[in-house]
Each structure stands twice: as C-alpha cells, then as structure tokens.
Amino acid sequence: MGSVRSTSELQSRALLAGGVPAVEEVRNGIHAIALAMPAMQPTYAYSYAILAGGSSRDVHIVDAGLDTDANWETFCAAIEALDRHVTDIVSVTVTHLHFDHTGLANRIREASGARVRMHGDEAAAIRAGLQFSAGHDVGDKFSEWGVPAAERAALLEIANSRADFGSSVVVDDELRDGQILDFGEHRARVIHTPGHTTGHICLALLGENAVFTGDHVLPGINPGIALGGRRSPDPLGEYYASLERLEPYADAEALPGHGFRFSPLGARCAEIRAHHEARTAQAAQQLAETPNLPVWELASRLTWTGGWDALPVVSRVSALAQTDMHAARVATVSAAE
After folding, report:
1. Distance between CA 328 and CA 4 in Å, rounded?
2. Amino acid 65: pLDDT
3. Could you read off the pLDDT of 232-245 as tens digits, one per residue?
4. Would 60 be classed as within a structural domain?
C-alpha cells in the first residue's frame, strides 16, 4: 500500500489470520465492533459504537453490520461489555444502503427506539428499488454489452440476487451534506461522497483527525463504483470528485467499513484513483484500436487479477459494470478535449 500504513495491529493481525478482530477502542469512547459476513468477501464489517460520555448513557451507532442472529448476539454482547445496553442506543447513522451496513438497524430501532438515518439520496434509492444498481441495471444491459447468450443466465442470477439488498431498512431521518451530527462528547460533519453509491456519506470527527469512510475508501480493496442509486453519466468522474472532497482530511486516520484502520487517508485516495485511471487508460487504448468495442469484448482485453478467463461469475458481473464505466469515462474525457 505504499505510504499508507495500518494504525491497528489488532485489526491487521485478524485480517491476515482470516479471523474477525476483537472490539477495539479507536478513540476515547468510540469502539469498533467487527460483525461477521460468513462466506463473503470481505469477511466482516465494522459497526462503531460511540458513547455520549459525561453523565449520559446514550450510545450512537455508525453502520450496523450484516443482519444475522449470530451478529445480533455479538453486537449486544459488545454493547453490554461497554457497560451499556441496546436500549441505550439513540441513533444509527448508516454510511450507505448496502445490506452489510444497514443489517441490524431495524433490530436496534425496534429494541431501543433509536432513529435510523442516512443521506436523502440513499433513502430515495431505497424507495425507487435501486438498492444495488449492479442488479437491475446490469441485467438490462446484457444485450447492449454484447454478452453471449450462453453466459447471460448465470450472470443474471448473480445480478438479481443483489437487487434487493437493504430494501427493508426503515429510515427515520434523511441527512444532508455539511450537517453536524451530535454524538455527545463527539461531533461529526456529514460529507456527501457519491461513488460507491449515490448517497454514500463519510463522517469527519471534529477535532479528532479521523474520518469514518464507510466503503468510500478502504485499505487493500478498491471499492466498487455505482453500486446503488441512479447511475450518473460519468460514475468514475463523480467518484474522483468525492475523493477530492476528502482533501481537507488528507492527513487523517481512516475508520473504514472493512479491513483495518489506516493513515494517511489522502495517500490511499491517491492510490485508488491511480488504479482506476490506469484501467481507463487501458480501455482508451483498446477503444482507439477498435472503436465501438462491445463491453463484453473490451472487458476480456483488460487486465484483471488472475485474468479474465479465470474470473468467477460473481466477479464478472462487477467487471462488466466497471468496464462500462471506464468506457463512459473515456467518452467523457474525449468529449472534453
């Protein structure tokens, strides 16, 4: 990861060992609770518990993991170990609408009366049934992308299986960019960072030099783009603009949705952008040699870990969507020149 370094030995060791890290206090009164994602990649997601402090017993949650009975038990036990109870939770702030971040939100809400909140664009995407746009959108585009008929059924099954993720979460409050959230002794600024999803947000802890990054910026993983909400004409350009919105926090520590804490945030943003720009350059070269190349054929000519032929079907759905985005980026840049 170049100049990016892990800031949590506990979390890094757990990832290398293939386990789920123990609860860790990442700031005074702020605790990272890892919740398992069985048979998935990544294998766990973080829910952060923020204790209001002072004489208050209030607890605020950032992201709510995957909804399983085992995770509910793990989560409740972690809250009890902090000398709090689930009924003390007053808010659940969700960085984005995917099922591994909204999962336990309804259970928490029902147990405590906590208000669940996310960006207004995410709430709108849920109402429109666009929880995972790689489902509906990709399925509709197979013909346009030149996907061979023999390949479509398996790809469509994967795409459709993702389409309803997060559809049942109840949203009480819709957040907006720049809003300040009161977590008791901690406060955070909402930063609208569209890219991974339309209404994704990061939360910058005021005075703490730390940012909850959700899935916008992750260590070791290049987040998928345009995976929820209505897709923009240039998803990568939109994502780059969101990375730039984090420039004031370039030296901050990232508290991500998966993996491990790391720093500096700005260096990782630069690495992710460089990765995408290199693939866009590959796509531009192929399209210059063969204009109007179908997405399926273009994807097969790009560089993928292990090679295109070795990509499992679940990865090919994402690869096709990414290839389409890189082609769109090539067109956008060409039109601007």
Report:
1. 30
2. 96
3. 888 999 999 999 99
4. yes
Bridge partner residues of 51 (DSSP): 59
In the predicted model, what is the mean pLDDT of the chain? 91
Cα–Cα distance for residue pair 14/231, rounded to 1 Å: 35
Six-digit token string for 91 = 């808010």
In a domain, 323, yes or no: no
pTM for the predicted model, two decimal places:
0.92
Q: Which amino acid is at 163?
A: A
The region of weakest confidence among 79-88, 107-116, 152-161 is 152-161
**283: in domain:** no
| 306 burial level (CB within 10 Å; 0-12, 13-18, 19+) | exposed
Residue 76, domain extent: 5-129+165-272
Termini Cα distance of the chain: 33
Amino acid at the residue 259: G
Q: What is the pLDDT, as a whole number, of residue 135?
A: 43
| Separation between Cα atoms, residue 185 and residue 54, nearest integer Å | 8
Which letter does DSSP use for residue 87 in this model? G
Distance CA 221, CA 209 (A): 22
The number of helices, as runs of H, and strands, as runs of E, in the chain is: 11, 14
| pLDDT tens profile 174-232 | 999 999 999 999 999 999 999 999 999 999 999 999 999 999 999 988 998 888 888 88
Cβ neighbours of residue 60 under 8 Å, at least 6 residues apart? 49, 50, 52, 89, 90, 91, 92, 93, 181, 183, 184
Angle at alpha carbon of residue 19, lines to 15 and 24, rounded to 5°:
75
Are 11 and 42 a contacting pair, CB within 8 Å?
no
- On the question of pLDDT at 140 being above 90, the answer is no
**Count of structural domains, the chain:** 1
CATH code of residue 124: 3.60.15.10
Cα gap 136→143, rounded to integer Å: 14
Is the pLDDT reported for residue 126 higher than 70? yes
Q: CA nearest 301: which of 313, 289, 315?
A: 289
150 lies in a domain?
A: no
Let me know: does 319 contact 299? Beta carbons within 8 Å. yes
Q: What is the mean pLDDT of residues 65-90?
A: 97
